[in-house]
Amino acid sequence: MTQFNGGMGLTGTGNGKSEVEGWIPHVSSSLRAGVGSNYTAPMADQDPTPSPQQPVPESVPARDARSLWRGKLHEIIFEADTPMGKFFDVLVLLAIMASVLVVMLESVEEINKQYGEILVAAEWFFTILFTIEYLLRLVCVARARAYAFSFFGIVDLLAILPTYISVLIPGAQSLVVVRALRLLRVFRVFKLGYFLSEAADLRKAVWDSRAKIVVFLATVIIVVVIVGSAMHLIEGSVEDTKFTSIPQSVYWAIVTMTTVGFGDITPQTALGKMLASCLIIIGYSLIIVPTGFVSAELVDSRVKAERARQASTKAHACPSCMREGHDRDAKCCKYCGEDLHL
């Protein structure tokens, strides 16, 4: 077989194979050596195109600092157990009272003429102050939407909207007296939670007696309509009478039955005065009825609560301290800690 020899010769072999297999690795090694030691071969799965700049993630210390700041702000604004929280709430309550006083003074014509500009400036000052407070409350809570639609969240928003609306609708700033509702926070600030629980009991008693109250109001409405119509029939034909219509007479009946007695409408005939006297007596008799309904429900709720408390305890006395009133599932005395041996 023919062989070619030279500087870069190929030599044939008897089996028909050339020495290319042995020559190519030497060439590859020479090329890599010639490029230099800084050459790095691309990986098979590497994208040769440059990747866009990736956003730098927020550092953990930055997140911790922000959480710490929001927690501290929440503690001051929403918590009244700390000195700073109580101080903040007291300042807010004083600002609320001052802003309501400003609105009330602004409605007095003499004061408004003399100090109108000062009162307007004070109102805008309180509005901006309460706006900043409202935004801070939204920032520091974990669920801003839940707070915004809560009772106090809506009240806080309504406390600042009228002043801004007054720019478009003059006189709307008088509605900022809704800020007085924010004074309900006084119960939380000064630890008057007992009054809140009592208010809850009263609300429950009124709700439980709602059926009786509805029947009572229906009875009152029927009485005033009948008496008003009768008074219009009796006094309607009198000269210069003020019982000119049944609605006018019903208005008189309501005022008379509630024992208010404005005196703007009075009967002139003897029969009309007799009917008015009967209505006043009926009013005195009915005025105490709703109070009895609510009082009965309050007493009933207290009795039920006491029975439930007694049902949840047992009369077994502790063998050590001889005290009773333990829970049904109690194994040890809640006063001295000894085993009840049950």
Overview of this structure, please?
The protein is mainly alpha-helical. Among the domains are: 65-191, Up-down Bundle (Four Helix Bundle (Hemerythrin (Met), subunit A)); 226-287, Helix Hairpins (Orthogonal Bundle). The protein is 61% helix and 1% strand. The chain is built from 12 helices and 2 strands; from the N terminus they run ααααααααααααββ. The chain has helices at residues 20-35, 60-78, 83-106, 109-140, 144-148, 151-165, 186-189, 193-208, 210-235, 246-257, 270-286, 289-311; strands at 313-314, 326-327. It has a two-stranded antiparallel sheet. Helix 2 crosses helix 3.
Give a concise summary:
With 342 residues, the chain is mainly alpha-helical. It has helices at 20-35, 60-78, 83-106, 109-140, 144-148, 151-165, 186-189, 193-208, 210-235, 246-257, 270-286, 289-311, and strands at 313-314, 326-327. The radius of gyration is 44 Å and the shape is flat.
Task: State the main characteristics.
342 residues, mainly alpha, 12 helices, disordered N terminus
